[in-house]
Amino acid sequence: MLTTTATVAHTAALARLGHAMSDQTRASVLLALREAPAYPSDLADALGVSRQVMSNQLACLRGCGLVEAVPEGRRTSYRLADSHLAPALDELLRVVLYVEPGCCAGENCSCA
Hints:
Elements lengths: L3 H18 L2 H10 L6 H8 L3 H13 L3 E6 L2 E6 L4 H10 L18
Helix pairs in contact: 3-4
């Protein structure tokens, strides 16, 4: 049986992670940062998004507590905020899911 304290804390953490990963760009950023820290402009170029989009996504990930900014002179790089996150993402990549055709595809999503 789970304790209420553990349930509330764990549920909040998983909800933040789920929100972060619900967007393909944010999920791609997390996967890229599990390899190494990176600069926003490099992430934007690698993922094919504008720098403004990248800035917004990094702000969201910072707000969720998943990434942190590291000032480096006039530039700022980003890295995963917790050392446990990279191995957790690696484990998630090993999960094989069966997805119903049409599920989670826009307005046909039964999850909403």
